Request: fold
Amino acid sequence: MDETTRAFRAAQRAPQNLVIYTGVGLLLCALPQVPGMQALLGLTSGTLVWWVGACLTATAIATVLYRTVGETATVYRVVAVTEACLLQVGAATVITSSDRPASPLWLITIAFASLQAGITEARLLLGALVVVPPIGAAVAFALRGDAAGALVCLLVDSLALMVFVATSRAHLRREEAMAQLVRWKLEEDRRRIARDLHDGTAADLAAVVWKAEALLQRLPSDPARRVELEQLATRASEGIDDLRSIVWSLRQEDRTWAALVAWVRQRCTEASTERLRVTVEAADEDSAWPVPGSACIDVLRFVQEAVRNVLRHAHATTVKVRLEWPAAIEVSVEDDGCGLPEGAELRSTGGLRNFQRRAQACGGSSRVERLLRGTRVSFSVPTHEHG
Ligand SMILES: Nc1ncnc2c1ncn2[C@@H]1O[C@H](COP(=O)(O)OP(=O)(O)O)[C@@H](O)[C@H]1O
Ligand SMILES: [Mg+2]
Reply:
């Protein structure tokens, strides 16, 4: 059920509305007591009381059920449909029995058409409840030989249908406009966050790297401090690296597979050193498959951390990064290094552990394998979970 219908229904089923409905019902029942009205309506208060009473009872039960068992319960739905039938079929029946085809009571049908058009769910059923009862009344008048009466009923019918269709369209258009507005707002926020990260946080981190490098040049003699400073500069550079990927993913909601592969390749080329060659192989790498932004971030963070681990710990000479997309996105990073120490996955509080957490969060999986020579880590992201 969509938000508009839910909000509309919640407003419709507010307990205080019962008081208003009862007041309107009582006024309707009292109407024939006004001089001249009984002749106009062709009905006595006695007839109206039965119909109004039945409708109000159904509304009261529907309100109680809505508040207790909820709008999705079958019992609520049955009572809500009964309520609508009692109102619409009841109105047509009462008008037919009154022998006044141009009855003011048709206003109830028009009001029903206008109000129910706000509910996007079960539109067909509601539309039928708007259209069919006046046709029934038209047939009844025609069978009695009252062609003019039948014509009036058909006129009311077309009017009710017009109101229903026009109001439904207006609701749909408003909903679309709202959805578009939300999309624009989100897009604007993403761009702003990307800009702030790029111009603010990334620039700050770059300043830290420069500062650390400058200090390193001025600190030739103190090995312990040098190591600390080098670590600081490396951490800050890695932070910049991460930020660049996040900014890249934020700038567009979704990317194509080709764009993702190209970005992974660029990052890996930058990570390559004289000692370590990073190669990237990808299936269908020119494909324009759309990849949700969140999946892009998961893939990038995984590749970045896996390649960084090889650089830091593996003493490898080559790293192969593979990207495939059979059903989910499958990524693997394989090195020919010294291999993972026993129990490294269990001891990990950082990268390796985060692979699992990240995979769990997106409904995917991650794996660490010890090869004859080296290590392979793989990560799978189901794209349908994203977005
Ligand atoms: N590709 C690899 N080759 C060899 N050892 C690795 C590799 N990746 C990870 N390791 C080992 O696993 C440990 C845990 O890795 P990780 O969770 O990423 O934490 P960190 O990189 O901060 O040490 C590392 O300290 C290292 O000993
Ligand atoms: Mg690590």
